[in-house]
Amino acid sequence: MARTRGQAAAQKGFASPAPKAQEPQGIQLRKGASQRAESNRRIRPSAIRETPSQQDPPALQSKGRKRKQRIEPGAARERRGPKRQPISPTRPAGDTIGNWPSQTVSTMNRLLARKKSTLSRKRSNSDISKTPSDQKPREEKSAQYRDQRYETLLQFNGSYMTKAPGGLASASQDLCRSLLENPQPVPGDTLFQDDIFETTCEKIRNKNEARVIQDISRLIVPSAESLATFGAKHLDILIESVNEGWSNSMPLTGTRPQPDYSVGFRREAFTKDQLAKLSPCIGDLIAGDASPVMATYYMYFPFLTCEVKCGTAALDIADRQNAHSMTLAVRAIVDLFRAVKREDEVNRKILAFSISHDNTSVRIYGHYPVIAGNDTKYYRHPIHKFDFTALDGKDKWTAYRFTKNVYDIWMPEHFKNICSAIDQLPLELDVDAPPLSDTTTGLSQDLGGLMQSDAGSVSQDSQSSNARQQGRTPDTSFTVPGKRRKG
């Protein structure tokens, strides 16, 4: 009988009640359905305001069953708990970590190394015994930088090849003047000595970059390691790279920096405790994890780059390369000081230098950040531009003296500040870094694709030429924004 009544009730539009011991009780439930429906309509608006997108469909509730969730608050909390639980925000990539709600997690995440993909790790391990792929042919490594639109690509990523509104801090302006004017001894028996200087300049006229580097580059930007070898022991903490890709750096535009010459700090410059605190920022050196504080696997906190070019408008290309490299260098210092809440100490202060030169001209720049809350933009300050062949070589040693003053005057204080900030880092960082991913915006990806399309023929020609000359497969690690090789 109960089954028959239930079927009849369903046909009349009523939900079938649970079996009851007595018939009158079931009849009373059906008679009260309309009153409860009216009550539900009065209650439902408040529930909608609390969880508008989480309503329970009315058809799933039995009109003939008591709503136990209204009588048992504990059960209601248990039922609604998963629905009211906030959903974790999607983890941002690269420099957008600053959008996380927690300021501490944000600043620390900026400083952490990014893991290299498993595929890239396997590729790196298989290539250990082969010719290293961290050196691209000279034509290929500068292909994207030849396009004037690369400056726009840098701007999309917060780097500007101009002075900042408001300029430098006054202390940095005074520093630039002292670095230019402070006297330094110059070497003898070189191609720049007075009696053969004019002959030297004539012999490298119309020559390629490799010849210019061989003959005069170290007379414009002296080697830090060579100076240390000749007795400048305070430079033993420095290490340099020559035409080596910054494979352990954290990309800005997707194009990996590969400066003709760069200087940073060697691992042995830091204490064991400092290296322990930096370890989450470094990651796996051998696997090639991307680190915000490293250039190559052996260079920490780079602060000087030099690019050499020849030909029409070539120094503009060198300037773009230097701007990219030194943006990474300045960003490393900003992220470190931000992590220990000392970012005001580096705001609008020069944190890195770059030099662009060809066979006649030199351009010297200082690179600095402008920090406004969580936002950081990067700018450059033109320190000096000159033709070192003019006036019988009057300024031929200007860049050399400037660079030595950077090593002797500016670098020791810079290193002291870095160590001071590292000492304030916690021994263990209890946050997870996001995986390495493309940090460029959609606009920069589109621009990078256009630039790569324009430079494609140059890359292919240089690869095939390099393969013929060296008898090996050309380097295929050259990438564009949005499709770069991890690490």
UniProtKB/TrEMBL annotation:
<feature type="compositionally biased region" description="Basic residues">
    <location>
        <begin position="114"/>
        <end position="123"/>
    </location>
</feature>
<feature type="region of interest" description="Disordered">
    <location>
        <begin position="438"/>
        <end position="487"/>
    </location>
</feature>
<protein>
    <recommendedName>
        <fullName>DUF7924 domain-containing protein</fullName>
    </recommendedName>
</protein>
<dbReference type="Pfam" id="PF25545">
    <property type="entry name" value="DUF7924"/>
</dbReference>
<feature type="compositionally biased region" description="Polar residues">
    <location>
        <begin position="454"/>
        <end position="479"/>
    </location>
</feature>
<feature type="domain" description="DUF7924">
    <location>
        <begin position="197"/>
        <end position="422"/>
    </location>
</feature>
<feature type="compositionally biased region" description="Basic and acidic residues">
    <location>
        <begin position="133"/>
        <end position="146"/>
    </location>
</feature>
<feature type="region of interest" description="Disordered">
    <location>
        <begin position="114"/>
        <end position="146"/>
    </location>
</feature>
<dbReference type="InterPro" id="IPR057684">
    <property type="entry name" value="DUF7924"/>
</dbReference>
<feature type="region of interest" description="Disordered">
    <location>
        <begin position="1"/>
        <end position="102"/>
    </location>
</feature>
